[in-house]
Design goal:
11% strand; mainly alpha; RNA-binding; 11 strands
Length: 438
RNA sequence: GACCCGUUCGUCUAUCGGUUAGGACUCCAGGUUUUCAUCCUGGCAAGAAGGGUUCGACUCCCUUACGGGUCGCCA
């Protein structure tokens, strides 16, 4: 029996990192077992669903690289006979009606006003969760487990019912979802029993918390997947990081590509305790991924950020990008790291400038400027040699001149290798900036 | 409040009865880089508490504390 998993978000907001990780684990499990991954849109709450939210889910999934085999816009052979896109719950009402009739025929439903409630079988319910193990909830305690409404007075069906029907209809073999659904599972099991069907296997994964341990929700840092591209994260890095929240490879390795994750993933390795979101580590993971991609790819990914700051992409761009590739953690840091190489009007770090000017060796800068001005050839090596020559002629060590020169050329205390700066800027600009530094 | 799940460095985690409790992020100190960053080395830092079981417990059991989740005609 081939594995079938699904991600079933409801389009009521943006795609949340918690949801993204749920999607990722389902996707990984399906891919690992050559199974099928399904995207189902649970849009039964018409009042809260929006087109933007629906699009945010697709955009987020696409950005993360989590493709679905069945779902909106991609076919699948379980379409409703009466609808052309049955992966939207809002379009599957005839199916739910049919299942509702089954429960009615089985005498498991009773009216409560205009609504219908499902009569629970009053017995202990034990589930065998793939992550949490054996969990028992006593349904003999009616006060703790009141019969649930499955059909509202307005005729619409509730989440528990449509969710279960769809998982049955779509033949899910494994349901991997957030731990917030653990207490719902016995309800779902009861429904499935009443329908005379076989339940899928369940795996409830721990929730993702804020750094302070509170529940992560809207507006919390890192909550919206849609914010990550804007902040300069690589999708592979985000996938890598969220996979590490509640799951471990059981080795000392932490940096993985999506395909490496498929290879290593297993439900047994998922933890039971909630994990806190560490933005600093997320950035570090991003840096590691930047280091692994090619310079060409990095240049392409950084380009939008550079252009957004109105910095010109010229023939020096490849060299500029190469010079900073391993010095940034986020793509969004690129503009501020390279602006002085592209424009003469880049912002200066006043503190660094003041510190450099207070450095006794900065007195040698005019001499260095004239020495360089007299050079006939120009390269990173020749420029560095010039520094050594001027420094030694004045009884200083070359290394001591580096800091003032760096600040004179870049206006910063930190930046690319000085050789790269000389080569990219060219003799003329270097001399000009050195001359004006006083 | 009731019912569930959980609890190892500040954070993410390894450990599946016997380890000097390991790795990573962060931070600090050295080294490499004639500079910056990368990188390398080292350091700080943990079994919530109390009872059992056992020759031996972070690991198994119980209690308490704490954290999270769920108790809707939301999903």
């Amino acid at each position: 029996m081939s594995v079938r998993t699904r991600f079933a978000p409801s389009p009521t907001g943006y795609l949340h990192v918690g949801g993204a990780r749920t999607a990722l684990f389902n996707w990984l499990y399906a891919r690992k077992h050559n199974g099928t991954f399904i995207l189902r849109v649970e849009d039964t709450d018409a009042a809260r669903n929006t087109e933007e939210a629906r699009q945010a889910i697709f955009d987020g999934m696409n950005w993360l690289g989590l493709d679905w085999d069945e779902g909106p816009d991609s076919g699948g052979d379980l379409r409703s006979p009466s609808s052309s896109s049955s992966y939207y719950q809002s379009q599957r009402k005839p199916i739910y009606d049919a299942y509702f009739e089954k429960l009615l025929a089985a005498d498991r439903l009773y009216k409560d006003g205009d609504a219908y409630r499902f009569r629970f079988d009053r017995k202990p319910m034990t589930m065998h969760d793939l992550v949490c193990g054996e969990v028992t909830i006593d349904y003999r305690d009616e006060s703790n487990t009141p019969d649930m409404v499955v059909k509202r007075s307005d005729g619409s069906y509730v989440f528990h019912f449509v969710n279960v029907v769809d998982d049955l209809e779509m033949k899910m073999t494994h349901v991997i979802r957030g731990e917030d659904h653990l207490m719902n599972t016995p309800k779902h099991l009861q429904l499935i029993e009443a329908l005379g069907a076989q339940p899928p296997q369940y795996a409830h994964i721990p929730l993702i918390l804020n750094p302070d341990g509170t529940k992560m929700s809207k507006r919390d840092v890192g909550a919206a997947v849609g914010d990550y591209p804007r902040q300069g994260f690589l999708s592979g890095a985000v996938v890598n990081f969220i996979a590490l929240l509640g799951w471990s490879s059981k080795t000392d390795d932490e940096i993985f590509t999506l395909t490496e994750l498929i290879d290593r993933f297993s439900l047994e390795a998922i933890n039971r305790a909630p994990a806190r979101f560490d933005f600093e580590k997320c950035k570090w993971v991003n840096q590691q991924h930047i280091a692994k991609i090619s310079t060409e790819t990095f240049a392409d990914l950084a380009k939008p950020f550079v252009e957004a700051e109105n910095l010109a992409i010229t023939e020096t761009y490849p060299a500029v990008i190469t010079a900073v590739k391993e010095k940034v953690r986020l793509l969004s840091e690129v503009p501020a790291a390279i602006d002085f190489l592209i424009t003469d009007t880049a912002a200066q770090d006043e503190e660094a400038v003041a510190k450099a000017k207070g450095n006794p060796n900065s007195a040698l800068i005019p001499a260095l400027a004239e020495h360089m001005a007299a050079l006939t050839d120009w390269s990173a090596e020749i420029a560095k040699e010039a520094i050594a020559t001027v420094a030694q002629a004045n009884g200083a060590k070359p290394g001591q001149l580096m800091f003032p020169v760096r600040v004179a050329l870049s206006g910063r205390a930190h930046g690319p290798d000085l050789g790269d700066v000389f080569a990219i800027l060219g003799k003329e600009k270097c001399v000009a900036r050195l001359r004006s530094f006083h």
